[in-house]
Design brief:
The protein is built from 27 helices and 21 strands. α2 crosses α3, α13 runs antiparallel to α25 and α14 crosses α15. A hairpin with a 6-residue loop joins β18 and β19. By secondary structure, it is α/β, with parallel strands linked by helices. It has five domains: about 190 residues, P-loop containing nucleotide triphosphate hydrolases (Rossmann fold); about 70 residues, Arc Repressor Mutant, subunit A; about 180 residues, Rossmann fold (3-Layer(aba) Sandwich); about 140 residues, PCRA, domain 4 (Orthogonal Bundle); about 45 residues. It starts with a helix and ends with a strand. The strands form four sheets. Strands 9, 10, 11, 12, 13, 14, 15 and 16 form an eight-stranded mixed beta sheet that branches. It is about 45% helix and about 15% strand. The structure holds adenosine-5'-triphosphate (ATP) and magnesium ion (MG). The site of magnesium ion has 4 residues, from α3. Its EC number is 5.6.2.4. This is DNA 3'-5' helicase. GO terms for molecular function: 3'-5' DNA helicase activity; ATP binding; ATP hydrolysis activity; DNA binding. It catalyses: Couples ATP hydrolysis with the unwinding of duplex DNA by translocating in the 3'-5' direction; ATP + H2O = ADP + phosphate + H(+).
């Protein structure tokens, strides 16, 4: 059999891993050394030369996107579809299992997934039920506690509060939350994993079936598995499964969320005869980028220690740019992207990475102003937008009336005269009778506790949902959506919101109908569920990965965390400032600081050809303006691989506006110190001017809204 296409594109060490004899194997290697490639080729190798059926393979990736890409690559290597193979994230795979065995898992057939926003609402509701005050018991903290315990595999009864009253109360909240979820037939993300684990643990017959089936288990990004994921793999593998994991301790960046890099060591202890293979050649980055990244990560103690080298070119230096403020930083980035684009580079080859999601807004605005198409990967994504969540809530209620978070979301959206007091009465009734809100609402509507008007309004809502369910029963998915967004009154509701915002919402709802239409064609995703249930699960699982406009050549924006595993010819890491990156929460704890440093390493090693690290001397974030200091990571860079960019009249060389070598008067005769008025922002005084013609910008300190940079030609300033 000719296997040259499988092994020729591999180096010696990679080949050894791909062709290793049956058994457990750990590939431990740095960024860009081909771990993911090895894993992909291994699967193709197993199917083609070892005669393993695709049905016998389970592969875990870190994102759904990575899963799709991996399946695609395997199928192209094999030149045939590999249907029966399971490739997905831990969450996706757990979800699939629970769908197939909902009965055994003690779930309703139409159970729904709670995303973290839904979960937050649910926690708040539970706090109200328990009559706990949110100032003493912040819902976020309770949510954090619950997820943390679930990630460790602990149910409330397993948590030992050690006599600590705060812990005891948190355990009670966890317990009440769990009951509320069970009543409503909803599961959060952590629950998917925990329940999938319990399913196998408690059902030896099922476990035996899956052990028989999945003899080959492969896991990418193994350094970021948490306790429950590890336990789950162990359970599945049993004594005879073959486990192939790849990872890099230097890229462990989810410790804060329960990931345990120790799993790498644990793996070698728990599994018999683990073969260890190291890969040392990097194929992704230029020599300079690689050396700079190596220089940073060398500051961490406690590393397993790996050296990476590349046969590639040395390339350009890593460029550092200190901007005057965050707006100018964004403008700098956009300028460079346009140059890249003009010189023939595609926009999709560019990634802008940042530590905190909130940083994206300013970058997005700069890109929009310059009409550069972009996509935000993670962050505020399509499925997270309010109007989309409203529409999905109606659909979720159609599938499952017991879905309390959805009930709460739309019971009075659009407004239909169901006030807080009525909702509160329904909640109390539900709590008293341990029933879903839907059931409680029916009883409240028939009772006498509320004024007739309120009861009628509740009844109208219940009837609306029942009617939607009936009317859409026989419809195609996209017609169902169309019908639901119209008949629910959501479209009308958005129309009332004036201006572009309302319009954008309507467009989003229309896009949702489109998404449903596309989904109809993709039957593989339905996995035996109704198309609607399948779509809702897909929306919940994919929300974090935003897929809008995939066909358009666009710049990619994402947090450093979500950039893991990806690569781009041109990368910007923005906001290299103390307190932002490393994040202020981390600087006091050495362990967390090292995790931030690994994050920096992950970010830098995404770059193939060019890498920019930028910071702003003044940054307005979360509504506060701060003078910043450049990140310590910049100082840790070996200077021989770095070049600082200084632009005339901008940035680091010009820390204060008064020192700018810029015009002192605009074409319209507005000068520094001039008082002006702006239609929206009111009155203010001009602090700085820069650029000429269409590029001209002006900085104004407004009396009410603070200091802003404006594009002069759009600002329509008038002298006062
Ligand atoms: P990360 O740690 O960032 O996840 P990785 O170790 O998984 O990285 P890959 O993404 O598999 O690395 O590979 C990095 C790049 O190098 C990819 O573009 C891949 O196609 C390429 N590559 C890997 N091995 C080889 C090889 N032997 N010859 C040529 N290119 C290779
Ligand atoms: Mg990888």
């Amino acid at each position: 059999m000719d296997v040259s296409d499988l092994i020729d594109p591999l180096n010696e060490a990679q080949r050894e891993a791909v062709c290793a004899p049956a058994g457990n194997l750990l590939v431990l290697a740095g960024a860009g050394s081909g771990k993911t490639r090895v894993l992909t080729h291994r699967i193709a190798w197993l199917i083609r030369t070892e005669g393993v059926s695709p049905f016998g393979i389970l592969a875990v990736t870190f994102t759904n996107k990575a899963a799709r890409e991996m399946r695609g690559r395997i199928e192209s290597l094999l030149q045939m579809p590999a249907g029966g193979m399971w490739v997905g994230t831990f969450h996706g795979i757990a979800h699939r299992l629970l769908r197939q065995h909902w009965r055994e898992a003690d779930l309703p057939q139409s159970f729904q997934i709670l995303d973290s926003d839904d979960q937050y609402r649910m926690v708040r509701r539970v706090l109200r039920e328990l009559q706990l005050d949110e100032t003493n018991w912040p819902p976020r903290q309770a949510q954090w506690f619950i997820n943390g315990r679930k990630d460790e595999g602990l149910r409330p009864e397993h948590v030992d509060p050690q006599g600590n009253p705060v812990q005891m109360q948190l355990v009670r909240i966890y317990q009440a939350y769990e009951q509320a979820c069970q009543r409503g037939g909803v599961v959060d993300f952590a629950e998917l994993l925990l329940r999938a684990h319990e399913l196998w643990r408690d059902r030896p017959d099922l476990l035996a079936h899956y052990r028989e089936r999945f003899r080959h288990i492969l896991v990418d990004e193994f350094q970021d598995t948490n306790a429950i994921q590890y336990a789950w793999i162990r359970l599945l593998a049993g004594d005879s499964g073959q486990v192939f994991v790849v990872g890099d301790d230097d890229q462990s960046i989810y410790g804060w969320r329960g990931a345990r890099v120790e799993n790498i060591h644990q793996f070698r202890r728990d599994f018999p005869n683990v073969k260890l293979i190291r890969l040392e050649q990097n194929y992704r980055s230029t020599g300079t980028i690689l050396s700079a990244a190596n220089g940073i990560i060398a500051h961490n103690a406690d590393r397993l220690g790996k050296e990476l080298w590349t046969a590639g070119e040395k390339g350009d230096p890593v460029r550092i740019y200190g901007a005057f403020n965050e707006i100018e930083e964004a403008r700098f980035v956009v300028d460079r992207i346009r140059t890249w684009n003009r010189e023939g580079g595609a926009r999709s080859e560019v990634a802008i990475l940042y530590r905190s999601n909130a940083q994206s807004r300013v970058l997005e605005e700069a890109l929009m102003q310059a009409a550069v198409p972009y996509r935000v990967y993670g962050g505020l994504r399509f499925f997270d937008r309010a109007e989309i969540k409203d529409a999905l809530a109606y659909l979720r209620l159609i599938v499952n009336r017991g879905d309390d978070p959805s009930f709460e979301r739309v019971v009075n959206t659009p407004t239909r005269g169901i006030g807080d007091r009525t909702v509160q009465a329904i909640r109390e009734h539900a709590a008293a009778h341990q029933q879903p809100l839907w059931q409680a609402a029916m009883e409240v509507a028939e009772g006498t506790g509320l004024p007739a008007r309120a009861r009628n309004a509740v009844r109208a809502f219940l009837e609306l949902v029942e009617r939607l369910a009936e009317e859409t029963e026989m419809l195609e998915l996209h017609d169902t959506f169309e019908h639901a967004v119209t008949r629910s009154g959501l479209i009308e509701h958005c129309k009332k919101e004036k201006g572009e915002r309302g319009q954008a919402r309507i467009e989003n709802l229309e896009e949702l109908v489109n998404a449903a239409r596309q989904f109809e064609f993709d039957e593989e995703q339905h996995e035996g569920m109704s198309a609607l249930s399948a779509f809702l699960a897909h929306a919940a699982l994919e929300a974090g990965e935003g897929q809008a406009d995939e066909w358009e050549d666009s710049v990619q924006l994402m947090t450093l965390h979500s950039a893991k595993g990806l690569e781009f010819p041109l990368v910007f890491v923005c906001g290299m400032e103390e307190g932002l990156f490393p994040h202020r929460m981390s600087v006091e704890e050495p362990g967390r600081l090292e995790e931030e440093r690994r994050l920096c390493y992950v970010g830098m090693t995404r770059a193939m050809r060019q890498l920019y690290l930028t910071y702003a001397e003044v940054r307005r974030l979360y509504g506060k303006e701060n003078y910043t200091r450049p990140s310590r990571f910049l100082r840790e860079l070996p200077p021989e691989f770095v070049e600082e960019i200084r632009l005339r009249g901008m940035g680091a060389a010009m820390p204060s506006p008064s020192r700018r070598a810029e015009p002192t008067e605009t074409a319209d005769g507005l000068g520094l110190g001039q008082r002006v008025t702006h239609r929206k922002f009111g009155e203010g005084v001009i602090l700085a001017l820069e650029g000429q013609g269409a590029q001209a910008r002006v900085q104004v300190a407004f009396d009410d809204v603070g200091t802003k940079w404006l594009v002069l030609s759009y600002a329509n300033l008038e002298a006062v």
